Structure formats: structure tokens, C-alpha cells
Amino acid sequence: MIANTKTAAIRVGITGVGSCVPDEIVTNDDIAERAQTSDEWIVERTGIRQRHVAGPGVAASDLASPAAERALARAGITSADVDLVLVATITPDMPFPATASVVAERLGAGQVAAYDLQAGCTGFVYALTQAYATIVAGLARRVLVVGVDLLTKYLNWEDRGTCILFGDGAGAAVVEEVSDGGFLSFELGNDGSHVEDLYVPAGGTRQPATAGSVAALDHTMRMNGRQVFKFATRVMVISAQRVLASAGFEPADIDLYVPHQANKRIIDHAVRELGIPEEKVVVNVDRFGNTSAASIPICLDEMLRDGTVAPGARVLMTGVGTGITWGSALIEWPTDGNNGGSV
Ligand code: UT7
To answer: Can you give the residue range of the structural domain that contains 107?
Structure first.
């Protein structure tokens, strides 16, 4: 899917962003012995130094709800002003109902529409696209988009190929009509031939939970790291180039590049290929690890709070994740809302 927004009747953008991560920090040294790895190896191959990890009993909605509340406050609205709660996650509170239903109730949003969207680490970009289309079609005035994942709940802490990479977190954005700027173009894709390169075998309808599936650790993540790395490096660049071309821009026209925070080496490769200068690239994977659907909105929240992004800035976001899915959204930051520092 690819489209620019040139012919749309209204401009739609992000007017508030918020995030929430668990307090507990787990460093590389904390996991090194059990996973037979080292801080040095992890930093060199991934750029990750630490990650935030949710404790027992903490679920997706527990991080999603505070992130959403902050986004609403920064947009200067309340949950009563929202028509749709859209939660991008592959780590819901439970198989059903949707985590969005739990979040809507926690926020006191009333009987608004609410559903989850599953697109792995690309989930936030997919959800922004859905929110945009829903508003332009006149089905909603304001959509609350949340990206939340607690992938540490699916880790085998003895599998050094996966446990070093992931952290937990949530990020949220209010999407609505804006008076200037807004989304310029979107590009989404998927290649289902890579399903088993990054997946959790059991717990779904293919292999429901049994004592055997638990004993075999089939409820933990399996990943072909090398394969995902190769695919991700290629597709991050292609997606970014497509979304820019669709809006009539070159990489040099971008003020800020917000790539999915999977691995610093993947980001470095994309930046080199695209020719985007390092000072325009947002990186926080060293502090959060890969927070999946939360990674891009956590970056946006940090950028707004420290003043990195200002009205008029052209921001390119690109995600890639299990599926394998990928997606990019290009936005010109609007002047409306976005009360960055004071909430
Ligand atoms: O949103 C997408 C989510 N997924 C990803 O982003 C994953 C993308 N892939 C990666 O980030 C990388 O593939 C990893 C960080 C997972 C692995 O790095 P790599 O450079 O691709 O390592 P490799 O799998 O090619 O393994 C190279 C060597 C192997 O040893 P031998 O066979 O050469 O002796 C591994 O056993 O490194 C070994 N190795 C490790 N050693 C210490 C693999 N993981 C570790 C580790 N610590 N954590």
C-alpha cells in the first residue's frame, strides 16, 4: 500500500504524544551470565546497553493507559473527545478481548470504538495509517493510537539470540485534523514467507497451550536473527525511499529520521544507504532495546520533550517487524497541540 495525501480534503496530524516504560532497568551485565553472552558483544552487535522490563503482573494495558493519558493531556483533550482507541500490539493483556477495550475503559473513554491491530514492530506505523484513513473518511474526528509491547514476557532468558534485544514500553499519539502540516505519505508492506523467522509457536489456534507446549518452551519467541537482519536492512531503505518518492521528496528534504529501534547496526545501514546525516537520526535503542510497536512513539515523545522536533519539521518514520511487515509514514509536524514539555 502506498499513497500520498495531496488530494485529501483535510490535513491530519499528531497533536499529542506520550510514553510509559516500566521502572525496572535490566543491564547487559544482568543477563550476561545466564545467556552466555557479554556486555561487550551486545553493545558491539546491537548498540543496546539496557532495557526496561515489566515485572510480574504488569500487562500491556498498564503501560498503554498512562502513555495514552499523557498523549491526551499534551493534545489538550480528554478521553471523552476520542472516537476510536486503536492499540498496536503483539503482546496483549490476554488473547481476547482486545487490549484496546481494556485501555478505553481505564481511560473512561465511554463506548467508543476500540480494537487491536497486530503488525509487530511496524504496528505503530500501521495504526497511524489506519487512524489517518479513518479520519479522512469521516468515520472519526480523533483517534487515540497506542503502540505497546512487553516482549520480555515471551523471552527465554537463556536464548542469547533473542533475550539481549527486547525491552518493554508503550507510546501513544492523538491523531486528528490539524491546521498546517500533517501526514504527507504512507507506505505499508508485508512478506508472509518470513513468518517463521520471528514467531511464538504456541498459544494460538495452531498450537493451543498444553503442558507439553509449556515444557517445550513453545510459548517463547523463536527468531532467525541473521535472516531478519538481512531482510530488515533491505526493506527499511526501500520503504523510506518509496514513501519519500510518493510525496515528491528526497532523503535530503528530511529534518528527522525516526527508524524502528531494533539494532543500531540496522539503523546505521539504513542511514548510510539513504544518505541521511547522523545528526538527523533519532537513536535510543541503547537505553530501551527493541520495544517493538512502542519504539517509534517513545522516540517521538523524547523528541518532543527535549525540543528536537518543532512545528514544520519533516519527520520520516520507518518500522519493520514480525510478519515480516514494514511501513513508513512521512509527516510535517503541525503547530496544533503538541504541548511537549509541560505534562
Ligand atoms: O524488529 C525486528 C526484531 N529482530 C531483530 O532486529 C533481529 C535482527 N538480528 C540481529 O539483530 C542479529 O542477527 C543478532 C544481534 C540477533 C545476532 O547478531 P549477528 O551478528 O547476526 O550474529 P549471528 O547470529 O550471525 O551469530 C554470530 C556468532 C555465532 O557464533 P559462531 O557460530 O560464529 O561461533 C553466534 O553463536 O555470534 C554468536 N552469538 C552470540 N555470542 C555472544 C549470537 N548471539 C550471541 C550473543 N552473545 N548474544
So the answer is: 1-343
